[in-house]
Specification:
elongated, Immunoglobulin-like, four-stranded antiparallel sheet
């Protein structure tokens, strides 16, 4: 047992020393600077829906040519970034794992950091007839945490409908305007014209009466 323990410890120190020798030319300040760059790297994504499938474009910003990127989807190495940006197009997966490594000759391949990006799962049944009019049920959301089959969605909707009371839509009452309503509405809309006409009429009557009285005298 003791020999096995000594062997494991010796092997660990051997591997550690080999790795240390591999990057012996690395300057500590250079490594610290590159790790600071990696800490400022931003990862975001856009998506497109094509034939009920979600495709993600992964956008990586704030990169420099001291760093190269590897990923677990395309399984490639990416160098020479334009304006510090790298875009991995058409990623059809639930997540992506990115590694940021040193691209400097004396530290080539040294892992500086990593990022894990989780994507939401597109629910292709959210706008299907089975989910028509359903609100508040996670099985009918556009983005979900797991992929559902049609049978699972249908079963969840049937259960939801069985326990959710249906609300009857109120009957629409059609109100027909009477002649009096129309007259009042016309007056309220054009009252100033009607009022002016009445005033003119009254003034005219008064003037005519005064003239008649004058002739009588």
């Amino acid at each position: 047992m003791r020999r096995k323990l000594i062997l494991i410890v010796s092997l660990f120190f051997f591997i550690t020393n080999v790795r240390a020798l591999s990057y012996a030319g690395c300057d500590f300040s250079d490594v610290a600077r590159m790790k600071q760059i990696v800490s400022n790297i931003n990862v975001s994504y856009n998506y497109r829906i094509v034939n009920d499938e979600a495709y993600f474009d992964v956008i990586i910003n704030n990169l420099t040519n001291d760093i190269y990127v590897t990923d677990n989807y395309y399984k490639g190495e990416f160098h020479n970034f334009i304006n510090g940006e790298l875009v991995l197009y058409n990623v059809k997966a639930n997540s992506i794992y990115l590694k940021f490594n040193s691209n400097r000759l004396e530290c080539r391949g040294l892992l500086l950091g990593n990022k894990y990006e989780q994507f939401p799962i597109f629910n292709k049944y959210y706008d299907d007839e089975v989910c028509s009019g359903i609100k508040g049920l996670s099985y009918c959301n556009k983005w979900v945490n797991k992929e559902y089959t049609f049978e699972e969605v249908k079963s969840a909707v049937e259960k939801y409908n069985s326990i959710t009371p249906k609300t009857e839509e109120p009957t629409q009452v059609i109100y027909k305007k009477t002649l009096l309503d129309k007259v009042i509405a016309f007056y309220l809309k054009y009252y100033y014209i009607v009022l002016a006409a009445v005033i003119v009429f009254c003034v005219t009557i008064i003037i005519i009466n005064k003239r008649k009285n004058q002739f009588k005298i």
